[in-house]
Specification:
CATH architecture: Sandwich
Shape: elongated
Number of strands: 10
Oligomer: single chain
Helix content: 10-25%
CATH class: Mainly Beta
Largest sheet: 7 strands, antiparallel
Structural class: alpha+beta
CATH superfamily: YjbQ-like
Distance between the termini: 31 Å
Number of domains: 1
């Protein structure tokens, strides 16, 4: 029987993870949060804020996990060159999950709340991005976007966890 053991030394926002397959090898990790204030329903490019956080971590090679702590917003990778792409996505979601649809019973938080939950379920609340040379390894036309699904602005929080060396 093969047993896997990983020793984990955890600190509030920084720690070391020992790789049991390579004696003496340590990977670093950094955890933190990025807070954002949205202005209503649309996609917000957060690539620069996340890249700044990655550079400040001092980790050059690894994998970045992002998680948004909300059920009515999402995080996604999308085209960052042509703003019409983002507008087309919003028009598509307006058609797919219309506000005020009589199908929805959960309306206590407003007519935009249940559609926001459905949009979030369809688009996702977490993703992973490789980090190479201290930079997000995104494609030429890719950016990281927080997708606010509520019509009113909200305070949103992205949890970042980077592991590597």
């Amino acid at each position: 029987m093969l047993l896997w053991r990983i020793a984990f030394v955890s600190f509030p926002y920084y720690g070391l993870v020992r790789d049991p397959l390579q004696s003496g090898y340590f990977m670093r990790q950094k955890q933190g949060k990025i807070s954002l204030k949205t202005q209503g329903r649309r996609l917000y490019d957060v690539t620069e804020k996340v890249q700044h956080w990655v550079v400040a971590s001092g980790i050059l090679e690894g994998i970045l996990s992002l998680f948004i702590q909300h059920t009515s917003a999402s995080i996604m990778i999308q085209e960052n060159d042509d703003p019409e792409v983002l507008e087309d996505l919003e028009r598509f979601f307006d058609r797919l999950v219309p506000q005020g649809d009589p199908l929805f019973r959960h309306t206590i938080e407003g007519p935009d709340d249940m559609p926001a939950h459905v949009r979030s379920a369809l688009t996702g609340v977490s993703l992973s991005v490789p980090v190479i040379g201290g930079q997000l390894a995104l494609g030429a036309w890719q950016g990281l976007f927080l997708y606010e699904h509520r019509t009113q602005g909200r305070n949103r929080t992205l949890v970042c966890h980077l592991m590597g060396d």
